[in-house]
Write the structure tokens for this entry.
Amino acid sequence: MSLAVEKMHPLIGAKVRGVDFRRPMSADLMAELNRIWMENLVLIFPNQPVTDEEHVEATRAFGEPEVFHQNIIKSRKVPEIFRVSNVDDDGNLMMPEHPTMQQLGSARKWHTDSSYRQNPAMGSLLHGIEISKTGGVTCFINMYEVYEELPNHLKQKVEGRRACHDFDKLSRIASARKATDDERAAMPPVWQPMVRRHPITGRKSLFISPIYNDEVEGMETTEASELIEELTEFAEQDRFVYRHHWTKDDIVLWDNRCTMHLVTPHDPMERRVMHRTTIVGDGPVIAA
Ligand code: OGA
Ligand code: MN
């Protein structure tokens, strides 16, 4: 097996060559990839012109693909595909006022995917199909390092505490469409530890997902929001962040258990089509 691994940042992100997502992945290859993934948190696989079906199939090598709980955003043809796109299933550009764009716009703030689920997603695989030239840079934070470097007054505040992760917060921050009663019942708010232990590496990381967090155990709402904001400001320092500038047919794999991400704005008149699969969580979040 000849994998070439090139680090993109001292703390997070590595480019991996020598993998073809259109072909079955052997057990040996998966063992090696998982090792490199745990070490680098975010992996970039260049030159992967996969179909949606091949993308989903490759995802199965890592775990079970998650199906998004709302009909918007999900691909009509391949339900495991989450469409991070300003072009609809029929190829029409959606304007920023479109409810789907309002909801996707929340990805311009730091978050981790599906943190509002009882078992949050383990990882995500994003395929760049039509790339933005005007922005649309995806940024990732190493949350292990953030936790280790947290100043004492913040460490004390998060230690042993839980934060609420609520999907419905999206409808309050973006003018995204309100969840229906059924959607709300299907995705009730969950309380998650603010410091978690990674089930594979055993390392501790800070676990917040600011677009979904507005309550913290034992705090008034204002104090909770201020804490989440202060933690976010600490986390987004350059030294913890890898910025991914896309090339068409990159596939980027990230670990939602120890990272946060966001996308920078881009010209809304420029098409940007990215298809994501999400890997179902391997179990409840482990408090550390
Ligand atoms: C995502 C996401 C970032 C991007 O796919 O989960 O947040 O670059 N997208 O579009
Ligand atoms: Mn995301």
The domain at 4-279 is CATH 3.60.130.10 (Double-stranded beta-helix). The pocket of N-oxalylglycine (ligand 1) is lined by residues 84, 107, 113, 124, 126, 138, 261, 263, 274, 276 (CB under 6 Å).
